[in-house]
Amino acid sequence: MNLVKILYIDPGTGGMLFSVLFGLFGVALFSLRALLMKVKYRSGVDKNSRLYDQKIPIVIFNEHKRYWNIFEPIMAELDKKDRKIVYLTCSEDDPAFKKEYKNITCEYIGEGNKAFSRLNLLNASVVFSTTPSLDVFQWKRSKNADCYIHIMHAAKDITLYRMYGTDHYDALILSGAYQIDQVRELERMRGIKQRDVELCGVPYLDEMKKRLESSGEVPPHERTVLLAPSWGESGILSRFGDRLIDSLISTGYRIIVRPHPQSFVVEKDVLDRLMTKYSDTSKVEWNRDIDNFEVLRLSDILISDFSGVMFEFAMVFDKPIIYTDTKFDARPYDADWLEETPWTFRILPDLGLELNESNAGSIKELIDRCIEDPSFTAGRGKARSDIWVNIGEGAKRSADFIIKEYEKTAARKAADDRAVSKTPKTGKKNIKPALKGVKTR
User: Fold this and answer.
1) Listed range (56-60, 229-233, 252-256) with the worst mean pLDDT
2) If you ran DSSP here, which 8-state letter would residue 219 be given?
3) Which 3 state secondary structure label does DSSP give 301?
């Protein structure tokens, strides 16, 4: 009995020990795999050339299929280039697998730690991704990857990533001149060597614009209001709920509510209650289409909070918005390092009117004014000039920049290898020539 008591471990402590052991096992497994990779690539007569021969010229990493629209137009352009490209995705049903590429190989690498273990051992000249926080959390820079290029997945401030979101990328594809100023200021403040930046545009907005232009005129219809809230306590449904929907119904306009997909997970009770209460489709339509294009095309105005769909609606569909007052806490973000308010919030008054506690009951007046006030048309033009350069050319310019970075990286690597091969063999390694021209951190 005493032995049993001595050996007894309470569930909490047991769970903690299990987590520690599991973590140690993971570290050991990862280290062993890294060692095997090193042995594999370092075997042979010419170790340096052997390592470089195995390199993948360009790797594209997509953390989730929801970002496929970011990569698709760029990949279509890259496939025209005579380069070996590998597309790595964490989504087993990624739309990329349905494409027939000539130069691009698509591969599912799993999720979480399984994916990171692959990424952290990449042997590539260039790695292209829209995932922030490289070398901040689990995703580490591989010692055998030479250049990391980032593209944003929304038209907004680059400072709205979590702290140090893009610090460890070597090159950045941007869409607005003011973003360059933000990058340079953060580099100066943090002592980061200037990275390569290129103003290419927003490829996924270009594709949406092409789709709109080919879809024809919107047929005559009654005035249509789209309520597209984000999820959580700060979202419109949580803050205004029944009061706003009742006010929208009283306008007599066609009302469509399109909740954020995450709302059906984290605030299901709220949605279930609202969808039951407002089940009369003649008054409120609930939209859950996977593709939001058609509902955006048919709506005359959008009401939202802090969802990126506001900028798609305003800049692509050229229609006004109503937004909620933004209580943005900059402390966890790169924006906290800069004194000015992010452009994403400064531009909102040029795109529409603010919905707040005092005017929520007068929503019809807000809707009518937004639709009929010509000043908001000028505001949308200003937004496009600020954040969406090279309209229609984003994908081609992005692909050209990736290839340019690849060629520059490959040339630098070849020069370094030649310098190493010419170093006299004295029994000691002369590391200075090998480091020449290589970015270090």
Assistant:
1) 229-233
2) P
3) strand
The pLDDT of residue 413: 84
CA dist., res. 271 & res. 266, Å (int): 10
- Residue 162: in which H helix or E strand, if any? none
**Model pLDDT, residue 375:** 94
Residue 231: its pLDDT value, please? Answer: 74
Element (H, E) at 225: strand 224-227
Cβ–Cβ < 8 Å for 372, 219 = no
- Considering only 23-27, 79-83, 84-88, 356-360, which range has the smallest mean pLDDT? 23-27
For CATH 3.40.50.2000, the residue range(s) in the chain are: 207-387
pLDDT tens, position by position, 215-236: 999 999 999 999 998 877 767 8
Q: Which CATH number fits domain 207-387: 3.30.300.180, 3.40.50.2000, 3.40.50.2300, 3.40.30.10?
A: 3.40.50.2000
Residue at token pair 């140090």 = 164
Give the distance between the most distant pair of CA atoms in the chain: 87
Answer for the pair 91, 65: CB distance below 8 angstroms, yes or no. yes
CB atoms within 10 A of CB 317: 19
Question: Quick one: tokens of 265?
Answer: 């997970």
Output the pLDDT for position 37: 42
Distance CA 386, CA 321 (A): 18
Task: Tell me the residue length of the chain.
Answer: 441
Q: Which of 179, 145, 177, 118 is nearest to 335 (CA)?
A: 179
For residue 370, give every residue at least 6 positions away whose Cβ sits within 8 Å of its Cβ, in sequence order, or none: 301, 320, 321, 322, 352, 353, 376
Please answer whether residues 249 and 255 qualify as being in contact, where contact means their C-beta atoms are separated by less than 8 angstroms: yes
Q: Check: CB of residue 176 under 8 Å from CB of residue 389.
A: yes
Q: Are strands 123-129 and 85-89 parallel, antiparallel or unpaired?
A: unpaired
Whether the Cβ atoms of residue 287 and residue 302 lie closer than 8 Å to each other: no
* Sequence-distant (≥ 6) Cβ neighbours of residue 65 within 8 angstroms: 89, 91, 93, 94, 95
CATH ID of 47-202+392-423, from 2.40.50, 3.30.1490, 3.30.2000, 3.40.50: 3.40.50
Give the single-character DSSP code of 101: -
Nearest 5 degrees, angle CA 201-CA 202-CA 205? 140
For the chain, the distance separating the N- and C-terminal CA atoms, rounded to the nearest angstrom, is: 58
